[in-house]
Design goal:
GO terms for molecular function: coenzyme F420 binding; oxidoreductase activity. This protein is of the alpha+beta class and 142 residues long. The protein is 32% helix and 32% strand. A six-stranded antiparallel barrel has the order 1-2-3-6-5-4.
């Protein structure tokens, strides 16, 4: 298991590669649609960026708080709940969005669509007892 410093360094590399290649990266994200989701620390207010696999469903953008099936939600999820207005980078576009947690049947349908295109998300849900949150990034401009 990597420590927080190693994880931060890995993310920095992914972010750099993303920005240099109009959203295309290799490694563990190769071939997956990737977004850079900006978020602000719920306690610190510090801006952070999370590279996340997303689902584009008829122009709607969804991200998944899987944290690889960890028993706890990722920090970025708590941060977006606390401060939902933010920006996301997709390809070479920066989009203003509001993060909205999707629940109930709609959440289940969207999560199933993600599992169909990225089967590891089925594994993530099976590894944890929590329901993995689905977050829609609703465009507020453009």
């Amino acid at each position: 298991m990597t420590n927080a410093a190693d994880f931060a360094k890995m993310n920095e590399g992914v972010i750099k590669e993303f920005r240099e290649n109009e959203g295309q990266v290799g490694g563990m994200f190769a071939g997956s649609p990737l977004a850079l989701v900006h978020h602000f620390g719920a306690k610190s207010g510090t801006e952070r960026i999370a590279p996340l696999v997303y689902l584009d469903d008829d122009g709607r953008i969804f991200i998944f708080a899987s944290k690889g099936g960890d028993p706890k939600h990722p920090d970025w999820y708590h941060n977006l709940v606390a401060t939902p207005r933010t920006t996301v980078e997709i390809g070479n576009e920066t989009i203003e969005v509001t993060a909205t947690v999707i629940t109930g049947e709609e959440r289940d349908v969207i999560y199933a669509k993600q599992c169909a295109v990225a089967p590891q998300f089925t594994d993530y849900q099976n590894k944890t007892t929590r329901v993995i949150p689905v977050v829609e990034l609703v465009r507020t401009s453009g």
